Amino acid sequence: MSHDRDGRDGNGDLRLLKDIDEPGLAGIDVYERRGGYKSLRKALEEMDPDGVLEALEASGLRGRGGAGFSMGKKASFIPKGTMDKYICCNADESEPGAFKDRLLMQKNPHRLIEGILIASIAAGANQTFIYVRGEYSLQADILEQAVADAYAKGYVGEGIMGSDHSTELVVHRGAGAYICGEESALLDSLEGKRGHPRLKPPFPANRGLFQGPTLINNVETLCNVPLVLEMGAEEYKRLGTEQSPGTKVVSVSGDVQRPGNYEVPLGIPAREIVYGLAGGPRPGRRVKCWWPGGSSAPLLEEKDLDLPYSFESMAEAGSMLGSGSIIVVDDSRSLVPLAMSTAEFYRHESCGKCTPCREGTNWTVKMLERIDSGEATPMDLEILAQVQTNIIGNCLCVLGDSMAMPIGSMLEKFRPDFEAHIEEARARNDASIVELGAADLANVAEAGPV
Amino acid sequence: MTSVPRPERREPAHAQLDPVGPARPTAVPGWDRPADLSKAPGTVPELAETDVAPDLRAEIEHRMSLYPDRHSAVLPALHAAQKLYGWLPPQAIDEVAAVMKVTPAYLSSIASFYDMLNERPVGRHSVYVCTSVSCSLSDAKKVYGAILDEAERTGLEDTEVREFACLGACDMQPMASIDGRYVGPLDVSDAAEIVASIREGRRPLPGRGLEDEDFRLPYEAAEAAPGGTPEHEAGPTDRGLGPSHYPDETPEAKATEGRNRRRRGE
Q: Which of A41, A94, A198, A390 is the most buried (most CB within 10 A)?
């Protein structure tokens, strides 16, 4: 495999999405023919669990679900001992803008299964779950078939491939609650409760599912695990940047000509993704702003497209890479409907456990409705911004923050949009009063306040 | 002072369909009904006294055996019951409760939390139109309105049409999930075909569903067509990732398309 001078992979760009268009890759035979389950064999026959764990830590692989925490470090927090230990694969991908896990599960389910099994060796887990969102019924069907095939071939179950390592794997379907993508809410949901986040600490690594040590990872993170073993940690680290090794599947949607999933090495300029791969906005339009990491990340502006797309540089720019989902908004849009769409989503999905989130999301929607109906004054924008700062950091989980951060950044960076919207709506209302005849006015007065 | 006529407020989608009347969008249905204090406290229904469909019982028992704790099987069990009945009537809740040895109230607390479980009849067919951020940038609300209008106009029964966010298929924007089948990108003109196919029990929009073998997004199909961009267009940026390029700069744009085909996952 040749490398460019800067260490970037210049040849085989595709890692996770390699062979993804191969017909029948979801079947176990094609996957095996493509070198599948070799990393699992390597982990079982040539390495010991500590060696696997060390390789994961050395690779610097960071979680692809949002927080970007080191996957190997997280696995190393799982205590040693003979108690029941669990792995949960978080496949509850529900964030607006994110659709990478859908592709990975639908087209290449066995890579995910292999990743989970290798992680179970590293963490010493004897029971693993894939929590897939209920709406992904097609993907869950494919996964269930793949798991059954893997059981039949002896990759899962008692004494995997003749070793003394045993692990069960169950595909668990959610039922349409975004909050269950939050790791502790996922655990509650998996225990058969309403999906409410838990207070941390204790962290799931110590007391998670059924109060046992639990490792929770995103689909894409676990799909990277076989790659790490296959390439070796050193080789894997040469992809991407020093602090963000590896490639990332980026979901691009919104005002672009070619929405879709693209795999890129971390650290390339965001402009390459938005314009180079996704085709940019329609001809004659420019990028107004973009979400770098799904709808929960603060917005960035057009000039920020030249930043390298990596965990560290997105954080420096005041946003986050999150799940790696770029939503592009072009310059023909006002941000008010977008703010409304975002806020309505989080209002609906707030589980109601913490007051700042439950009330804050509701109030944000109400205030945006005021702006939309022309009843707002410029002071309302101050209050709206204040509501957002009162949510951030004050809840058990980050669902409220996920609304407060983008709305806060919209108000900060695109305030004229909101002011213009207020003015327009007021002018529209004023005009409609003028249009009303005297009779209509009388009727309105008779009917009382609406 | 004259009161200003307010512009029409948008009604939440389910308020229009709710047979009981408009509810607060964030409230659980029935939250404002008084508790019936004369009722006996929640008890676990006896399995011997409950008429449980044999298939349903086998499915739930199988699911319970997969988990260290039987409570984990609540969601799969309720999914199975909902598949049987189309929704979760009290009878279904009782059946699941009897098999799982939990109280119906516990199951009800779960069913009311999750969007995909329905404690009131909503129809056997579902049309979830995604109107979240990305889809809303492609006029998803108009598509939703068109499907709703068409369903009303033609008197489509036994079908739940609702807005949903987010279905995780923003590349198909705007899209909908029709009985679990993802179709997109949609246009207002597709509404008639969607409604007709549900009524006639056909697969909606063949070739435009995510699971279809020949599924391609419109721009991919255009490229694959004769006269489209060749598979491998050599160019300065074809290998690795070179300097920035814009779609209106022709040579680079072509190279981009060539590379894009290799990179794109679907």
A: A94
Instruction: Lowest mean pLDDT of B36-50, B146-160, B190-204, name the range.
Output: B36-50
The answer to whether the beta carbons of residues B158 and B124 sit under 8 Å apart is yes
Interface test with B, best of A14, A19, A106, A253 (most B CBs within 10 A): A253
- The shortest C-alpha distance from A325 to chain B (Å) reads 10
Q: Is residue B53 part of a domain?
A: yes
Q: What does A181-229 look like in DSSP terms, one character per residue?
A: GSHHHHHHHHTTS------SSSPTTTS-GGGS-EEEEEHHHHHHHHHHH
pLDDT bin (cut points 50, 70, 90) of residue B238 is very low
C-alpha to C-alpha distance for A360 and B243, rounded to whole angstroms: 44
Residue B173 has its nearest CB partner, among A259, A362, A450, at A259
- List chain A residues with CB under 8 Å of B68: 84, 127, 210
Could you tell me if B92 and B152 lie in one domain?
no
Instruction: Confirm if A368 and A381 have CB atoms less than 8 A apart.
Output: no
Long-range contacts of A106-109 (CB under 8 A, 24+ apart): A106/A26, A106/A138, A106/A139, A106/A142, A106/B210, A107/A20, A107/A21, A107/A25, A107/A26, A107/B265, A107/B266, A108/A16, A108/A19, A108/A20, A108/A25, A108/A26, A108/A31, A108/A223, A109/A26, A109/A139, A109/A142, A109/A143, A109/A145, A109/A146
Q: Would you state the pLDDT for residue B9?
A: 55
- Whether A175 sits inside 8 A of B75 (CB atoms) is yes
Beta strands B176-178 and B125-130, pairing class: antiparallel
Between A172 and B259, residue with greater pLDDT = A172
- Asked, for residue B244, whether it belongs to a domain, the answer is yes
A–B interface: beta-carbon pairs under 8 A: 246
Pair (B134, B112) in one structural domain: no
Q: Is there a contact between A262 and B263 (Cβ–Cβ < 8 Å)?
A: yes
Nearest neighbour of A445 by CB, restricted to B3, B78, B239: B3
Q: Which domains does chain A have, with CATH numbers?
A: 28-237 (3.40.50.11540), 247-330 (3.10.20.600), 335-428 (1.20.1440.230)
pLDDT of residue A335: 94
The whole-number pLDDT of residue B266 equals 36
| Shortest CA distance from A349: residue in chain B | B26
| Alpha-carbon distance values, A163 to A81, A118, A121, B135 (Å) | 19, 13, 11, 48
Residue A405 and residue A298 in contact, taking contact as beta carbons nearer than 8 Å = yes
Mutate to test the interface with B, among A21, A129, A137, A287 (most CBs of B within 10 A): A137
Separation CA A105–CA A116 (nearest Å): 13
Q: Mean of the pLDDT values across residues B61-81?
A: 96
Q: What is the pLDDT of residues B154-182, one digit of tens each?
A: 999 889 999 988 899 999 989 999 999 99
Residue B16 lies in a domain: no
B145 is in which domain, residue-wise?
Answer: 125-200
Q: What is the pLDDT of residues A296-306, one digit of tens each?
A: 999 999 999 99
Residues of chain A with pLDDT under 70: 1-13, 436-442, 444-445, 448-450
CB contact under 8 A, A170 and B128: no
Same domain, B47 and B117: yes
CA diameter of chain B: 79
pLDDT per residue as tens digits for the range A115-162: 999 999 999 999 999 999 999 999 999 999 999 999 999 999 999 999
Q: Are A342 and B133 an interchain contact pair (Cβ–Cβ within 8 Å)?
A: yes
Q: Give me the residue from A14, A253, A350 closest to B263, CB to CB.
A: A14
